[in-house]
Amino acid sequence: MAIDAKNLRVDYQADELLEKDAPDQPFPLFDRWFREAQDSDCPEPNAMVVATVTAQGHPAARVVLLKEVDERGFVFYTNYDSRKGQEIDAHPHVALVFNWLELQRQVRIEGRVERLDDATATAYFQSRPKKSQIGAWASPQSDVIPDRDFLERRRQELEEQYRDTDTLPKPDHWGGYVVIPEMIEFWQGRSSRLHDRLAYHRPAEAEEWQRERLAP
Questions:
Q1: Closest CA to 83 of 105, 104, 64, 103
Q2: What is the distance, to the nearest Å, from the Cα of residue 205 to the centroid of all Cα atoms in its chain?
Q3: Active-site residue numbers?
Q4: Where is FMN annotated to bind (predicted)?
């Protein structure tokens, strides 16, 4: 098998990112870009890559869905026993990437991770569609399973068990994380590969953000 992608190119000319248009704090800019991604019909604008490392330093990445941005950071939910959950427990620092191709934009985030409190996770879990609640119980995420029928049997058993209720109890192994950012970089594609990159840095426990321009 061979793939030759050397000549696949796009000349980015959608927009620019200049200091005069960028606020001193990164969250207002993220809010603006996220809303513009929603308005531009980007498919799943809340989709983000979450990159982790194992205790041995081996990297891993996958796409998950952002569920909230609050005053602390970026919130997502998952199975704590999954591979990413175990890797976060071993090394509670991650990188996130949002890639909005329609706008020729990317946001990259680095930060430390903390678990959400159980009450918040339970409230969100029980607001999800019932089928999604059943799925969280049915799947031993990241474990090896014998076949697809294993999942279907588990799903059917749970549907029967909870047929008379619209909400299930939240599994102990399921919950939320907040990524508390220490760096947020905004990337805007520009012509001739001379892209705009503005990075905001805030070391742990610091209150003020520092902004700087990076070479593309």
A1: 64
A2: 23
A3: 193
A4: 62-67, 77-78, 83-84, 106, 141-142, 187, 197
Q: Are strands 74-79 and 174-188 parallel, antiparallel or unpaired?
A: antiparallel
Mean pLDDT by 10 residues, the chain (216 residues): 89 93 96 97 96 93 97 96 95 98 98 98 96 89 85 89 92 96 98 96 86 98
Instruction: Classify residue 71 by its DSSP letter.
Output: S
Q: Which residue ranges make up each domain of the chain?
A: 19-128+172-213
Task: Report the phi/psi class of residue 33: left, alpha or beta, with left for phi > 0 and alpha for psi in -120 to 50.
Answer: alpha
The verdict on whether residue 142 carries a ligand-binding annotation is: yes
Residue 174: the pLDDT is: 96
Annotated ligand binding at 177? The verdict is no
> Which H or E run contains 93?
strand 93-100
Superfamily of the domain at 19-128+172-213: Electron Transport, Fmn-binding Protein; Chain A (2.30.110.10)
